Amino acid sequence: MAGVAEEGVEHTPEGPDWRPLVAALANPHARRLWAQVVLGADHEKVGAGMGASRSRRAVAALVDAGLLAEVDGRLVERTDTLGRLLAAAGRPRPRGPERFLTRSGEIDRYPVDAGERRALLELVARQVLEPDEVVSEAELGERLRRFSADTATLRRYLVEAELLERTRSGSEYARVT
């Protein structure tokens, strides 16, 4: 079924309101009716077996949510609503040292600015070692692997920044406190 242009969707200053959509999809009767329309059920069979009153309420919720529209007495799918909601939501931009990490938490790039680089390395140090913990070089490498495939370079940066230190034996590492 062809989609219909925007109507009946309330907008907030941030964009379309998602609450009516979630409320409609939380209702099992509205969800069933919407699925019937989306899957192309015969117009006469849409909402069959759920009673006239329940069917009217489900249709009203779906139209208010912007998922369906009534055109020439028939229910049609609104294909633009979900895309508009997603586009309006955007993705919050990370701040601080997190902005140098990928979505999966790996270091995307090392900051040029010394203060930002230090903040990133401090974040890594806090996440890989507890303040009084001592670990072997192999264990440290495993923990650093979630941030970078090049664990030797990352380990060297952490030591040079005096965030990690080697024990006297040189085979273990601890956080500088």
Descriptive overview:
The chain is of the alpha+beta class. It has 2 domains: 11-89, Arc Repressor Mutant, subunit A (Orthogonal Bundle); 96-175, Orthogonal Bundle (Arc Repressor Mutant, subunit A). The protein is built from 7 helices and 7 strands, in the order ββαααββααβααββ. Helix 1 (19-26) runs antiparallel to helix 3 and helix 2 packs across helix 3 (52-65). Residues 1-7 have low confidence and may be disordered.
Topology:
Blueprint: E1 11-12, E2 15-16, H1 19-26, H2 28-38, H3 52-65, E3 68-71, E4 74-77, H4 81-89, H5 114-128, E5 134-136, H6 137-144, H7 151-160, E6 164-166, E7 172-175
Antiparallel strand pairs: 1-2, 3-4, 5-7, 6-7
Keywords:
about 180 residues; Arc Repressor Mutant, subunit A; 2 domains; three-stranded antiparallel β-sheet; two-stranded antiparallel sheet; 7 helices; about 10% strand; rod-shaped; disordered N terminus
Strand content: 5-15%
The CATH architecture of the largest domain can be named as: Orthogonal Bundle
- Sequence of strands across the biggest β-sheet: 5-7-6
CATH fold annotation of the largest domain: Arc Repressor Mutant, subunit A
N to C succession of SSEs = EEHHHEEHHEHHEE
Low-confidence stretches: 1-7
Roughly how many Å is the radius of gyration? 27 Å
Molecular shape = rod-shaped
Structural class: alpha+beta
Q: What's the helix count? A: 7
- The average pLDDT score comes to 88
Question: What does this entry show, briefly?
Answer:
This protein is of the alpha+beta class and 177 residues long. The chain has helices at 19-26, 28-38, 52-65, 81-89, 114-128, 137-144, 151-160, and strands spanning 11-12, 15-16, 68-71, 74-77, 134-136, 164-166, 172-175.
